[in-house]
Amino acid sequence: MSVIDLGEYGADFTADPYPYYAKLREAGPVHEVLTPDGIPAWLVVGHEEGRAALADQRLSKSTSVIDLVLVREEIMGPHLLSIDAPDHTRLRKLVAGEFTGRRVEALRPRIQQLTDELLDAIEPAGRADLVDSFAFPLPITVICELLGVPAADRDSFRAWSNELVAPSGAMTEQEAAEGFATYLDALIEDKRAAGPGDDLLSALLTTRAEDGDRLSLAELRALAYLLLIAGHETTVNLIANTVRALLAHPEQLAALRADFGLIDGAVEEGLRYDGPVENATFRFTREPVVLGGTEIPARAVVLVGLAAAAHDPGRFPDPGRFDIRRDPRGHLAFGHGIHYCLGAPLARLEGRTAIQTLLRRFPRLELDPDAGPLEWLPGMLIRGTRHLPVVW
Ligand code: HEM
Predict the structure, then answer these.
(1) Which residues line ligand 1 (CB under 6 A)?
(2) CATH topology of domain 4-391
């Protein structure tokens, strides 16, 4: 089979990759591709095969398996998404012991309050960019407060993290990663010097497993980086992508407005229909691995298509239909297996609160008819638009 150059699909692929994934899937569940960034990879586009690949321990998360050097990873050091079991098991246990359901549930009133405040601020204008004024500031404020990052510092790392997730060219990857790492080291040092606060970073500084095991400062820095990036580059697009889908499907929006008991289903369908993470993070083969009947050679990059899996008609009948009453079980928007998203309960709580409150407050919400075409985020990792102009 020949190598498929995804870069040749151009801007249409970024704006709407689903027809391209469908075409590939018709030809088979696994394809050798060149990503638009020029990285040779094996792309999994079938749901069953994707699910299996996410849980397949023969696929490593460590770049040391191949010769790929990711500048940011070198600078930040190893974290949950760049290590395998048993190192991953140890780290995940330490983190999960502090980042608990109870800690997330305790954030509920604060998430509602922030949502209300953000909507209060934009209401009088009658129009806004929903990304800049709502979908972005909500999760970043929540994750910063959860971790104990001072409000004054948040603009700087919006710049760093944006640059790392969807580069605009404003600075190099190295500059962004170094700026971020230096900042996090100082923040952790401040917390250590000041003594334990009640934020998650302070809790992680002092946490100890039963056997006395604890996180090193380097582990804590890399973890804080991962949580900050994962905690706000994703949920912003859960909110914006789901609102966009609802506005594009007035009958679904009307059903939700008539019965907000459907909000959980609407958020799950948002995650499936146009989720924030288009493809899982890289995995690497140590040895040749057969996936979906295709042999992937040793030392290759494997890209599991979460968006592609979500539109596999073998798993989700009529996958292009946005249906908030669909049985949502089984989507892979939060991944699967040992790297399943640690922040899923928080993301769901934020998404449900934000979307429900927005719709209740603005009964006549619609896309701004005067806005130009939407600008899609580049790359194959995050799916969303830079802006979402709306009126009410
Ligand atoms: C809608 C929002 C979100 C989506 C769609 C999402 C999606 C994902 C996905 C697909 C993975 C697995 C990646 C892979 O296996 O390659 C993942 C892992 C992870 N996510 Fe999320 N995420 C979201 C929000 C969050 C939030 C709010 C946090 C933290 C506060 C978070 C923290 C993490 C962490 C730490 C991991 C790595 C877990 C591990 O390797 O053990 N995520 N997420």
Answers:
(1) 54, 80-81, 92, 143, 226-227, 230-231, 234-235, 238, 275-277, 280-281, 306, 333-335, 339, 341-343, 346-347
(2) Cytochrome p450 (1.10.630)
- Take residue 300 and report the two structure tokens written for it: 């290759």
Domain ranges within the chain, ordered by starting residue: 4-391
Q: Model-level pTM greater than 0.85?
A: yes
Residues 164-194: tens digit of each pLDDT: 876 778 888 899 999 999 999 999 999 999 8
Probe residue for ligand 1, chosen from 267, 341, 346, 382 as the CB with the greatest number of ligand atoms within 8 Å: 341
Rg (Cα) of the chain, in Å, rounded?
21
β-pair partners for 304: 44
Amino acid at the residue 262:
L
Q: For residue range 258-315, what is the model confidence (pLDDT) as tens digits?
A: 999 999 999 999 999 999 999 999 999 999 999 999 999 999 999 999 999 999 999 9
